[in-house]
Each structure stands twice: as structure tokens, then as C-alpha cells.
Write a structure and sequence with these properties.
The protein is an all-alpha fold and 262 residues long. The protein is 47% helix and 1% strand. The chain is built from twelve helices and one strand; from the N terminus they run H-H-H-H-H-H-H-H-H-E-H-H-H. The longest helix is centred in the N-terminal third of the chain and has 28 residues, at 12-39.
Length: 262
Amino acid sequence: MQEHSVLSLKNRWTRYSVIILLLTALVSAAIGFIWVPMANNRQATLSLWEAICSAAGIAGPTRSSELGDDAAQRPSNVIVTANMMRPANAESIGRGATLAMRCTMCHGIRGVSEANSPNLAGQIEAAMYKQLRDYQSGHRVSAIMRPMVQGLSDQDMRDLSAYYAYLPHEREPGSDSHAAPKLVSNGAPMRNIGACASCHGGMARQAATPILDGEPENYIRDQLYAFRNGTRSNDLNQQMRNVARQLTDAEIAELAAYYSRR
């Protein structure tokens, strides 16, 4: 009887050992490169190739199980930071002045509205830029503003914001003499309402938070109602919606009247 070397494939025990080793390697690879990545990403539907790439450490397309793939479900697609706006120069302001000629019917020649449209003169630059972006993307709904911003580039919106921020913020004589409602100065802590002045007042200004002083009374009132009933939802983290849901009609009227007189 012919004897074979232990390491020869003609030896049946060697063949069995190699087959078992290959099967073990295949099962281990399937578990490590396919089953484990899919089990750890149940909220995201991974393809076979994406699972293998994930296990191998190869970067794939960015996903967010909380935000979803549909941008319309988010309050805004603008990332608000303290330095989101580049310093405006004379050229940018000049381009913005030219673009603003089409805005005068609603917002006035000098950014001061004669109707119930918001006053833009002296407004926070980042706040205007964010709203323009939200109108264009549909995160803030307006049958009037959407067509106006559809053709604007990102630079156009920055130039418009720079121009209106450059204009002086006009106030009526003696407009600061009215006493502030408690909601403005103190809020209502028992109802989880922060002071309005903590975001919208004086020196306490946050990035992309608009100035409310001197805005038309009807406009402020309508926006608070819109936040309260959910027809406006482009506030990041629902700050305004959470506040407005707690406000009574009388409080909304009081706040609108106060800010419009400032």
C-alpha cells in the first residue's frame, strides 16, 4: 500500500483539514463583513457591497437615521454658525442694492415697509440670508417669496443680505419709552418660555436671529400664529414653535404691539 506525505493533498486527512479551514474562513468572513455591519445598522438599509465596505473601513455615503434622506423633513438646510457670513465689502453691498430694486414694492425703497411686509433695513445679515435660503429650498413657505428667490444664486442672497444690513435701522421718535412686557424681559419659566430679549433683544443677539424692533405689528402677530399652529417650521430645534405653543392670543397681541412700537 502506497503511503502519502502528511502535507500532500493526496492524503485524505490533509484534504479534510484544508476544506474545513476554508469553510471556517468563509463563514467568519460572512459574519464579519456582512452579518455584523447589517446587524449594527438596522435603521439604514445597507446593500451587500456597502456592508463589506463598512466592515473594511471604507467610507461610504453619509447617512442620518434621524434626519432621513428627504431634506424637506428638516426645518432648514442652513448650518447656522457665528461666522457663517463673510465680511461684506462695498462691491457686495452695491450688487445687493441693484438686486434689491425688485424688492421695493413690498419692502420699501430703503428697506422700510409701508405694508405688512417685514422691515429689512438694519436687519441681522445672517438672519436675512437664512430666510432667503429657506424660501428658496421650500423650508419656509410663501407664494410671494418663493418665485422671487428661485433664480438667486448663493452669492446673490449674500449680497442682498449685506445691502439691507448696511442700511440704517430706522425707529420712531420715543419708541423706546414703552415698558417691556414680562415675557420680553423675564419670560415665563413655569411654562418653559425663555425671555424674548435673550435672543431678540439689544446686545443679546444670536447668529441668524432677527431683530424684532420696529417690525409691523400684523407681521409679528402672523408669524407667532404660524409658529404656534405649525404652518411655519423653519426654526432650528423648534425654538419658536415650542414658545409659541405656550402663548395665548392676548400675549401674542401684546408682544406684537410692543415690538412694533420700538
